[in-house]
Specification:
The structure holds two protein chains of two kinds. By secondary structure, chain A is mainly beta. Chain A is 0% helix and 50% strand. In chain A, the strands form two sheets. In chain A, strands 2, 4, 5, 6, 9, 10 and 11 form a seven-stranded mixed beta sheet that branches. Chain A has a four-stranded antiparallel beta sheet with strand order 1-3-8-7, with no helix packed on it. The relative contact order of chain A is 0.33. Chain B is an all-beta fold. In chain B, the strands form three sheets. In chain B, strands 2, 5, 6, 10, 11 and 12 form a six-stranded mixed beta sheet that branches. The chains are: A mainly beta, B mainly beta.
């Protein structure tokens, strides 16, 4: 089954404690990205990757890191989480848009930083 | 820069009524894609439809229909004979055909179907 898998689904952590949210896709997609969803703001892109070892900032990258060492994996790293990073996070993958396909989303990770 | 506006923050209708969710977008590009996603209470994002900028045909899928009008930069979504299972947050999104192919989302419309 084609899917994007995020882990964990729920996470409560304390300010400053490094954490990683994993994302893996099994569709051989080149493009992967991370979004955060906040009330009244919709989803905003954090980082994206157009292929292995190619990553770049999205609209709200501060406080986040990513890596793309393998095509299927795109982890999101919070080196020193702060309460303003409490949010619902989604990983997405897709073929490049010239092929006119939709993005597939993971199930979401609800992060609370206290 | 591109922008998507969903002016309706929340809508409530009684079951079996028809409801239209509005989406207005802004972009200077001529090639782009428009999407609708559904987010049910369980939280995941469910893809509903994709439309490219060169295809202005309206589409119907069961009780769902979409009206794409480039002249007004709108991509509205209508649910006919609404059901309780349609209760969700609906997002409209825009994606360009070059560069960072991110989805630019609207702020979403929370639809509540009252039994």
């Amino acid at each position: 089954e084609a899917q994007v898998t995020q882990n964990p689904r729920y996470l409560i952590t304390v300010t400053g404690k490094k954490l990683t949210v994993t994302c893996s896709q099994n569709m051989n997609h080149e493009y992967m990205s991370w979004y955060r969803q906040d009330p009244g703001l919709g989803l905003r892109q954090i980082y994206y990757s157009m292929n292995v070892e190619v990553t770049d900032k999205g609209d709200v990258p501060e406080g986040y890191k990513v890596s793309r060492k393998e095509k299927r994996n795109f982890p999101l790293i919070l080196e020193s989480p702060s309460p303003n990073q409490t949010s619902l996070y989604f990983c997405a993958s897709s073929l490049l848009s010239r092929l006119n396909t939709e993005a597939f989303f993971g199930q979401g990770t609800r992060l609370t930083v206290v | 820069a591109q922008k998507v506006t969903q002016a309706q923050t929340e809508i409530s209708v009684v079951e079996k009524e028809d409801v239209t969710l509005d989406c207005v977008y802004e972009t200077r590009d001529t090639t782009y894609y428009l999407f609708w996603y559904k987010q049910p209470p369980s939280g995941e994002l469910v893809f509903l439809i994709r439309r490219n900028s060169f295809d202005e045909q309206n589409e119907i899928s069961g009780r769902y229909s979409w009206n794409f009008q480039k002249s007004t930069s709108s991509f509205n979504f209508t649910i006919t004979a609404s059901q309780v299972v349609d209760s969700a947050v609906y997002f409209c999104a825009l994606r360009l055909n070059f560069g960072n192919e991110k989805l630019t989302f609207g702020t979403g419309t929370r639809l509540t179907i009252i039994p």
